[in-house]
Amino acid sequence: MELKLFIAGLILFAVAMFMLTIKKKFTSESSQKTFKTIYSWVDTGWTALIIASFLMFFFVQAFKIPSGSMRDTLLEGDHLFVNKFIYGFHIPLSGGARFLPIKNVSRGDIVVFQAPQSALSFEEKKAGITKDFIKRCIAVAGDKVQIKNKKLYVNDVEVNEPYVKAKDVNIYSGTDLADYQQNWEKGRFASVRPDYIRDNFGPVTVPAGHYMMLGDNRDYSFDSRFWGPLPDKFIKGKALFLYWPVNRWRVI
């Protein structure tokens, strides 16, 4: 979106510059008045688009909830603003370093991020498609995570999660999987049967530079249980404000 706005702004800027080169051809009073009106709109348009693209790239991004994985906290079709600078700006070619972070990603934060490759289908990977997800961070680097009969434990302490709603009364016992930690880190659980790990998962330890992201609609969320820990470099920002629909306005 930011790139599209920037390109549109550049196109309008080029149009504005072209209009200045032909300005002298409008000699009558009426044509000059029409020219000034059109030029004013074009000049305002390219300026607004460039500023908007700059703000969206560095500071705030609009995001639409694509699925029901965060029900009932966020619903399909909800529109919200994402704070892109709170975790700092990514420094290109730095291996994931951030510049001027206000805070680190913390447990409980609702975060927008680029989906890792392990979360994409074969067709999406082949087509070079990228997707953004929104989930809740439930663990950071070094945390031990385990789910027992739908109850989340972080560092062997049960986590109170009032935002999680169990929609399925069934509790799957899960199964033992070989090389659990290694296969989880590599995102290999994305292709296993959901009942193997949905309600009974781990224990695993979140590796350095990674986070564990889960949906609040825990029974119907495709999240870090399946596609593995999320690298910090994929973080885009923290959910800030739900602005649409208007009857659900609130700070997140």
UniProtKB/TrEMBL annotation:
<feature type="active site">
    <location>
        <position position="135"/>
    </location>
</feature>
<dbReference type="GO" id="GO:0006465">
    <property type="term" value="P:signal peptide processing"/>
</dbReference>
<dbReference type="InterPro" id="IPR019758">
    <property type="entry name" value="Pept_S26A_signal_pept_1_CS"/>
</dbReference>
<dbReference type="InterPro" id="IPR019533">
    <property type="entry name" value="Peptidase_S26"/>
</dbReference>
<dbReference type="InterPro" id="IPR036286">
    <property type="entry name" value="LexA/Signal_pep-like_sf"/>
</dbReference>
<keyword id="KW-0645">Protease</keyword>
<feature type="domain" description="Peptidase S26">
    <location>
        <begin position="40"/>
        <end position="244"/>
    </location>
</feature>
<keyword id="KW-0472">Membrane</keyword>
<keyword id="KW-0812">Transmembrane</keyword>
<keyword id="KW-1133">Transmembrane helix</keyword>
<keyword id="KW-0378">Hydrolase</keyword>
<protein>
    <recommendedName>
        <fullName>Signal peptidase I</fullName>
        <ecNumber>3.4.21.89</ecNumber>
    </recommendedName>
</protein>
<dbReference type="GO" id="GO:0009003">
    <property type="term" value="F:signal peptidase activity"/>
</dbReference>
<feature type="active site">
    <location>
        <position position="69"/>
    </location>
</feature>
<dbReference type="Pfam" id="PF10502">
    <property type="entry name" value="Peptidase_S26"/>
</dbReference>
<feature type="transmembrane region" description="Helical">
    <location>
        <begin position="6"/>
        <end position="23"/>
    </location>
</feature>
<comment type="similarity">
    <text>Belongs to the peptidase S26 family.</text>
</comment>
<feature type="transmembrane region" description="Helical">
    <location>
        <begin position="44"/>
        <end position="63"/>
    </location>
</feature>
<dbReference type="GO" id="GO:0004252">
    <property type="term" value="F:serine-type endopeptidase activity"/>
</dbReference>
<dbReference type="InterPro" id="IPR000223">
    <property type="entry name" value="Pept_S26A_signal_pept_1"/>
</dbReference>
<dbReference type="GO" id="GO:0016020">
    <property type="term" value="C:membrane"/>
</dbReference>
